[in-house]
Design goal:
Blueprint lengths: L7 H7 L1 H10 L15 E5 L2 H15 L5 E5 L11 E5 L6 H10 L5 E5 L6 H4 L2 E4 L12 H16 L10 H13 L4 H4 L3 E6 L3 H16 L3 E5 L15 E6 L6 H7 L3 E3 L11 H18 L22
Parallel strand pairs: 1-2, 1-3, 3-4, 4-5, 6-7, 6-8, 8-9
């Protein structure tokens, strides 16, 4: 299914293999903003950025680069000691992120990754990586978020700290090209409900896939760690409903989905020809746009959302 010519979101989705490669090629320019080996790091963000923080935190810690926690910026534990705080903010204006960076400035070294160099985050953080080539016109985040994770993955790869089984970024970019070219399954497009599942770093991707479907298409979606699926979420699965797994499947999971009549939509996993999980997220992004357009929604301007959440402290 080619990208819709009328949807900016689809065009931005289609550009991701290129922005991932550019992030990796620009890695040396952003070194000051990124964690050093051995540092105890907190990664923060809001919404999609928080989910990318969750994915990166698992990758970094599992790869032996250093202890890493991820928090929604509003939930940062100020009593806990860290060597660095890394903030992810596309707009550079999100209130909770700026408040956190301001509060810890001069106490904890801070870095930020943003898309806009003309925003307050440039002075709120000690060092900033600007991925302006991955910025978006759409309200819904797609390529900025994945390009941030691509940059952080490339950094771990350059420092020989990718966890076992995580592929080089170039393989992920090649898989994303496949995910853009291959048609979406008709049965998946026709489903009424979606449960996204992940393990380790791919749990963050599952959360993001669910959010993307809700934001763009108003779809009924849920997201869980894959091993939690049997502890309740399986009750919602049935005919006309999808369980979508990012990464390898726990033993017996596919059989359990089939037993209750659900559709197991897994394109990433252990097989050599399976998509990289980050490329599989591209497939979910495409599905979100498809469903939005099929339902008469504008995927570029979802209801109730703005590009950045800026709070009025006087009324908060």
């Amino acid at each position: 299914m080619p990208p819709s010519e009328t949807s900016r979101t689809s065009v931005e989705i289609a550009s991701q293999p290129g922005t991932w490669r550019r992030a990796a090629e620009s890695l040396a320019l952003f070194a000051d903003a990124l964690p050093r080996r051995g540092e105890r790091v907190a990664v923060v963000g809001c919404g999609t950025s928080w989910f990318m923080a969750l994915a990166y935190a698992n990758l970094r810690e599992e790869g032996g680069h250093g202890e890493t926690d991820a928090f929604a910026a509003s939930e940062f534990p100020h009593g806990r000691a860290y060597d660095r705080v890394l903030a992810i903010t596309r707009s550079g204006t999100t209130t909770e992120v700026l408040d956190l960076l301001t509060r810890v400035k001069g106490v904890i070294p801070t870095g930020a990754i943003t898309a806009d160099p003309e925003t307050p985050v440039m002075t709120a953080a000690d060092a900033v990586a600007v991925l302006d080539f991955a910025d978006e016109q759409s309200v819904v985040q797609t390529r900025f978020a994945t390009t941030v994770l691509a940059l952080l993955r490339a950094h771990l790869e350059a420092e020989n700290a990718l966890p076992a089984g995580v592929r080089p970024l170039e393989r992920a970019a090649l898989d994303a090209e496949r995910a853009l070219a291959e048609p979406l399954e008709p049965a998946v497009c026709a489903a009424e409900q979606f449960t996204f599942l992940g393990t380790g770093w791919t749990y963050g991707l599952a959360l993001e896939a669910g959010l993307k479907m809700r934001e763009a298409a108003g779809a009924w979606t849920e997201a869980y760690p894959a091993m939690e699926y049997r502890h309740g979420p399986i009750s919602i699965t049935g005919p006309g409903r999808v369980a979508w797994l990012f990464g390898p499947a726990p033993q017996g999971l596919a059989e359990d989905i089939a037993r209750v009549g659900g559709l197991h939509a897994a394109a990433s996993g252990d097989q050599a020809d399976a998509l990289d999980p980050l490329a599989d997220l591209v497939r979910a992004q495409r599905l979100a746009v498809h469903l939005a357009e099929a339902r008469g929604y504008d995927p570029d301007r979802p209801r109730n959302l703005t590009r950045s959440v800026i709070l009025d402290h006087a009324s908060a």
